[in-house]
From TrEMBL:
ABC transporter domain location: 5-246
UniProt protein name: Phosphate ABC transporter ATP-binding protein
One Gene Ontology term of the molecular function aspect: ATP binding
Origin: domain of life: Bacteria
Pfam families: ABC_tran
Species of origin: Cohnella nanjingensis
Cited PROSITE patterns: ABC_TRANSPORTER_1, ABC_TRANSPORTER_2
InterPro entries named in the record: AAA+_ATPase, ABC_transporter-like_ATP-bd, ABC_transporter-like_CS, P-loop_NTPase, PstB-like
Length: 251
C-alpha cells in the first residue's frame, strides 16, 4: 500500500517540555489510522504537526521531517495555506461559522478563488452528499448552521473540510462531544470517506479505534510504542505496555 505521510525522527518541544520523542511513522494512503494512548501522551500534538497547526502555538520547536507525498512540509518554501487545503481538519467540538449552511461549505472554495455560483452550488452539494448530510439540509441551505443538531453540525464541518478537495482528513476526537447515534453516523461516514481520502484520527475510545480504523498507533509519554494493523494490535500486541493499555490496566 502506498505511503502518503512519512514522519521521521520527529521531536517536538513546547518550550522546555519534550512532547514528541523521536517519532518515526509511515501512514498509508486511503486508510484510517487511529492514534490511541492515555491523556497527554502526544496524540493531538502529532496530529497537528501534519498540517502545521502547531505553528500557531508560541514556543513550539520541531526537529525531524514530515513528508507528504515526498515533500517535506516543514521546508521553508511550503505554503501553509496550500498545505491546509490538502490536509483538512475536523475538531472535537463542532465549530461551524455563524453563517448559513451553504456559506459554511462554500467558505473554503471561495477563499481559494471559486466565484461562479454554478460551481459553488455543485461543490456545496457534492460536499454535503459526501458528508451524508445533503438529504437532511437540501431544503434549508440558507438557514443558520447553528440551527442544526450537534451531530449534523459535525457532519457540516466534515463537508466544509471536504469542499476544498483535500487528500488527507485529520479528525481530532471528532465524535467525543456527540451522542451515540451521531457517533455511529460519523463512524460509518468515516469508513466511506476512506475510499477517497486518507484519514488520521485521534480517539480516546479504544473501541472506536478497533471498530473503524485499519491501522492503530499506540503512544505513551510522547513516544510511539507500537504501530500495526488494528486487528493485530488489539489481538496480539507485541509490547507489554500496549497489552496493559488495551486490557485496561492503565489510562
Ligand atoms: N500548547 C501547549 N503548551 C504546552 N504544553 C502543551 C501544549 N499542548 C499540549 N501540551 C502538553 O503536551 C503533552 C501532549 O499533549 P497532547 O494534547 O498532544 O496529548 P493527547 O495525547 O492528545 O492528550 P488528550 O488525549 O488528553 O487530548 C501534554 O503533556 C500537554 O500538557
Amino acid at each position: 500500500m502506498a505511503v502518503i505521510i512519512e514522519i521521521e525522527r520527529l521531536q517536538l518541544y513546547y518550550g522546555a517540555f519534550h512532547a514528541l520523542k523521536n517519532v518515526n511513522l509511515s501512514i498509508p494512503e486511503n486508510n484510517i489510522t487511529a492514534f490511541i494512548g492515555p491523556s497527554g501522551c502526544g496524540k493531538s500534538t502529532l496530529l497537528r504537526t501534519l498540517n502545521r497547526m502547531n505553528d500557531t502555538i508560541q514556543g513550539v520547536r520541531i526537529e525531524g521531517d514530515v513528508t507528504i507525498q515526498g515533500r517535506n512540509i516543514y521546508a521553508s518554501d511550503t505554503e501553509v495555506e496550500f498545505l491546509r487545503k490538502r490536509v483538512g481538519m475536523v475538531f472535537q467540538q463542532p465549530n461551524p461559522f455563524p453563517k448559513s449552511i451553504y456559506d459554511n461549505v462554500a467558505y473554503g472554495p471561495r477563499l481559494h478563488g471559486v466565484t461562479k455560483k454554478a460551481d459553488l452550488d455543485a461543490l456545496v452539494e457534492q460536499s454535503l452528499r459526501s458528508a451524508s448530510l445533503w438529504h437532511e439540509v437540501k431544503d434549508v441551505l440558507k438557514k443558520s448552521a447553528w440551527s442544526l443538531s450537534g451531530g449534523q453540525q459535525q457532519r457540516l464541518c466534515i463537508a466544509r473540510a471536504l469542499a476544498v478537495e483535500p487528500e488527507i482528513l485529520l479528525m481530532d476526537e471528532s465524535t467525543s462531544a456527540l451522542d451515540p447515534i451521531s457517533t455511529t453516523k460519523i463512524e460509518e461516514l468515516t469508513r466511506e470517506l476512506r475510499q477517497k481520502y486518507t484519514i488520521v484520527m485521534v480517539t480516546h475510545n479504544m473501541h472506536q479505534a478497533a471498530r473503524i480504523s485499519d491501522r492503530t498507533v499506540f503512544f505513551l509519554n510522547g513516544e510511539v510504542v507500537e504501530a500495526s494493523e488494528t486487528e493485530t494490535l488489539f489481538r496480539a500486541p507485541v509490547d507489554q505496555r500496549t497489552e496493559d493499555y488495551i486490557s485496561g490496566r492503565f489510562g
